[in-house]
Amino acid sequence: MNNFYDSQKTNVIFGKDTHKTVGEEIKKYGNRCLIVHDGGSYLTKILEDVRASLDASGISYYELGDVKPNPRLSYCKECIEKVHQDPVDFILAVGGGSVMDTAKFIAVQANMKESLFVNRDIFTPDPVIPHGVISTLGGTGSEQSLCAMVVDDSLEVPEKVGLYNLGFFFDFAIINPEFAYTLPPKMMACGAMDIMSHCWEVYFAPINGNEIMEGYFEAIVKAVLKEGLVAKEEPTNYDARANLNLAAIMAMSNTKPAAGEMGDWVCHHMENPITVTFKRTHGEILSIITDAWVKYAWKSNPAKFVRWAVNCMGARLYDNQEDTVMEGLRNLEDWQKRMGLPTRLSDIGIKAEDCKICAENAMKISGTGKAGAYSGYDVDMVMEVYKLAE
């Protein structure tokens, strides 16, 4: 097992009507707040409750509500300029992963002299604006992580960049599973797929001597497979929604679940450029890439893929390892289809031959010049996965 440092800064406030206490929480930090959201109609009642809570606590506020999926650096800069003109004591994100990451970036970058894209030091040298979130979609796990994904749209070919900084940790995360009741089924499915992918990016990394953590990830995946289907059939099933929300933060709370192993992230590195280039949803592209990656990668670690097929995907244990792995993959594809997720690039009108620039961009995301911290895929290897995904 690796050495690791575990600091869980974020206070998680979980359950029904918890968002109505947000004014009391923010009052601990000051009297002026910026609310960041995406302007979606699904937020109407939530924002009404938030404003009422802030008003009751004597907190003044203003809102910036134009966050787009895969948050853009240009918009983050506009928000920071507004914060410089109208300073705040607290930044509140109300929304899903893109909104959370936008708020994190503003909170840390606002007082930094250097760009976070240049200064990659995980310890922030300048004061961070206190920030929290009312989460409306579980999946990314951004509620309790030190990561923010931001698209550098200043480039000719925009790139989605993973930034890591201890300052990104929210001071609190309010999670009310009831907010997911009205989510479009596809968004819920994409969030569920993202949770499982977060588990597998670490699960398939070379974790040695850590049976507890391997079992931990298997348990999360099995819960997501079950509760995702329940939530699809029964949108107002509170326990199903609550389990999905809990799974999201359990899968992505950094060093704690991985016991010091940050994972490979090869599927995310291959997925991110396609998502940005073709303006798709993160979870749907992960669905496609994960299936193709299993076909491509299983022979490199057959024992682990067999364990995955049996313990995560409910496959039978055959004498032939490939039979076991492929049954596990078929079970995954069956679940994806039941959830309304695509399993092939052709399902969403994309050809592998159109993804060459995506393969090249996949080399940049990890910072190592290859896709995957351990896999080390080059452009040709990524293109092989894309071809299998077609």
Automatic annotation (TrEMBL):
Ranges where the Fe-containing alcohol dehydrogenase-like C-terminal domain occurs: 189-387
EC number: 1.1.1.-
Keyword Oxidoreductase belongs to the record: yes
Record InterPro entries: ADH_Fe/GldA (IPR001670), ADH_Fe_C (IPR056798), BDH-like (IPR044731)
Enzyme superclass (EC): oxidoreductase
Keywords: Oxidoreductase
GO molecular-function term, one example from the UniProt record: oxidoreductase activity
Residue ranges occupied by any Alcohol dehydrogenase iron-type/glycerol dehydrogenase GldA domain in the UniProt entry: 10-177
Name of the protein this chain belongs to: Iron-containing alcohol dehydrogenase
